[in-house]
Amino acid sequence: MIGICGGVHWRLVELNVDHACGLISLLKVIGGRLGITDIPDFVDVMVHGPAEPVKEVLGSSIVIEQSLVPNLASRAILIGGVPYASLEDLVVSVVVNEEPWYVGIIREILSRDSVRRNLRWEWINEVLSRYGAGDRFQRLTGRHQP
Question: What one-character DSSP code corresponds to residue 76?
Fold first, then answer.
């Protein structure tokens, strides 16, 4: 198993796959600052496009999340030279990643006023509207978008 998202990142760069490190990898870096301590113990990556080819290369030890929006690499935040999906990308992508752990952590993130206030809701609402996912987002998160 690859121990950190950095190793996964370089394998996906070689494959020319649009990607960024995912929700769990991001929370391992910033989770303490958000007060989120119950973080699953795995490495994940977010991809835009078909996940099956990525799963074949990375194997079952890496969790693959789907992104609702393209160009993750250009939108990502860089931590230690490795791209991590932005919180906005992760929030809108909850509608295509309905796994209970993913939805639960997104709900926890959105329950924090300091996080909610700093999200770019105009962009989130525009993306959810573009994909017709506003109602699904509300159902999954239990929240109306501001």
Answer: P
